[in-house]
Amino acid sequence: MLSQKTIDIVKSTAPVLEQRGKDITTHFYKSMFEAHPELLDIFNHANQEKGRQQTALANTVYAAAKYIDQLEVLIPAVTQIAHKHRSLAIKPEHYPIVGEYLLKAIKEVLGDAATDDIINAWAEAYGAIAQVFIDTEANMYKEASEQPGGWLDFKEFEVADKVEESSLITSFYLKPKDGVQLPDFQPGQYITVKFDIPGEKNIVNRQYSLSAAPNSEYYRISVKREADNQPEGKASNYLHDHVNKGDVIEVSAPAGDFYLDVDSDAPVTLISGGVGITPTMSMLETLAVKNSKREVVFIHAARNEEAHAFKEHTKQLVSELENARSFVAYGEKKNQETICDVEGHISAEFLKEVVPANSVCYICGPIPFMGAVIGHLKENGIPEEQIKFEFFGPAVQLS
Q1: Residue 149 φ/ψ region, left for φ over 0, alpha for ψ in the -120 to 50 degree band, beta for the rest
Q2: Of 29, 95, 173, 259, which is the active-site residue?
Q3: In this record, what's one Pfam family (predicted)?
Q4: Has 190 been labeled as part of a binding site?
Q5: Is residue 279 a known part of a binding site?
Q6: Phi, psi (5° rounding) for residue 83?
Q7: From the candidates 126, 137, 173, 330, which is the catalytic residue?
Q8: Is 208 annotated as contributing to ligand binding?
């Protein structure tokens, strides 16, 4: 239990953390990796290079300061981050290292403003918050490893098939090398794939949504080829160019708190942009497998028809469902024969017309796309609690 003095001091630092948070977290990561380069085998280098991890941690530290006396407010964020930590095999022994370099960064960036009282209060607060993460993740590790077919950390999978889904997206069907039946997962969850890429100094980890309905035989990930000069391209292009049928890769057990509530009878709307179709495709397949009677609306936005993944498969799944409709938005039509429901951006008016007011909406795609869609849904009166969304990478502000 934190003392009132500690709570008061930590809360008093919230305004400066809101202003200088990213300076602190940028300094933190730089100094920690210099002292502990082995941690670069865990962290996503693309998120580091783009500054997303620094921003996400800054937001988390600020929220911790603001709500240090109401830690229950942080539980959704803790759960989301803990899922990512569990899928990356982050363990309790990593937390003291993070704490040491975070406190050093606060001191070094804020200088004299970071008094001994402030550093001591933050040390106590960090210990309490770290314990919440450790306890939450311990339960997740236990659940992942003890369920039928489950495992701890990473396990070898063989690429059973490699299928081109569009001009940009290719699917990889992964089967456990030991032949053990796969554990169940929630439609919408992701796995971490570990790469030892020739020429790379460190292990590269990437999280990919599972794009098929849960089954006991295989996982499917559907990966977008990124531009060669993009940090994300390091893993995605390696998969596209060098990982083939018969190859073996290491995979974590499924994780994530963005998933379809399969027990609900409420109408469901699945909205995706680009490769954001991967978790919504898992959800749509699951609804079809279960012969769901729910009202289902599936909306996908792609750059154009060539970039539209799972086009025919979506039509098939929607036709199998009793009460489902699908809509397509293309940023551009390459010819007059191209058929789509929306040309250009999805508008609030379009969503008002096709999304039932009582629908639970699941959204995934590029951040600007999600920000626009979520804004439109709220404008149309869809309550916040009916809007679920997934970030590919660290969570950021959508507004």
Answers
A1: left
A2: 95
A3: NAD_binding_1
A4: yes
A5: yes
A6: -60, -45
A7: 137
A8: yes
Which domains does the chain carry?
4-146 (1.10.490.10), 154-252 (2.40.30.10), 268-390 (3.40.50.80)
| Residue 209, annotated as binding a ligand | yes
For residue 335, the one-letter residue type is N
Does an H or E element contain 163, and which? strand 154-164
Residue 46 CA to residue 294 CA, distance in Å, equals 39
Q: Is 219 helix (H, G, I), strand (E, B) or coil?
A: strand
Helix/strand/coil for 264: coil
Check the annotation: does 211 bind a ligand.
no
Q: How far apart are CA 50 and CA 27, in angstroms?
A: 15
Structure token digits, residue 280 = 């919504």
**Strands 190-195, 204-209: parallel, antiparallel or unpaired by DSSP?**
antiparallel
Per-residue burial over 226-243, b if 16 or more Cβ lie within 10 Å, else e, is beeeeebbbbbbbbbeeb
| CA distance from start to end of the chain | 34
226 classed as catalytic = no
Token pair of 134, please?
């450790």
Strands 387-390, 360-364: pairing kind: parallel
At 265-320, the pLDDT tens digits run 999 999 999 999 999 999 999 999 999 999 999 999 999 999 999 999 999 999 99
Alpha-carbon torsion, ordered 373, 374, 376, 382, to 10 deg: 130
316 is in an annotated binding site: no
For residues 173 and 388, give the distance between their C-alpha atoms in angstroms, rounded to a whole number.
27
How many Cα atoms sit within 13 Å of 217 on the Cβ side? 4
Q: How many residues in the chain? A: 399
Model confidence band, residue 59 (pLDDT cutoffs 50, 70, 90):
confident
Has 95 been annotated as catalytic? yes
* Whole-prediction pTM: 0.92
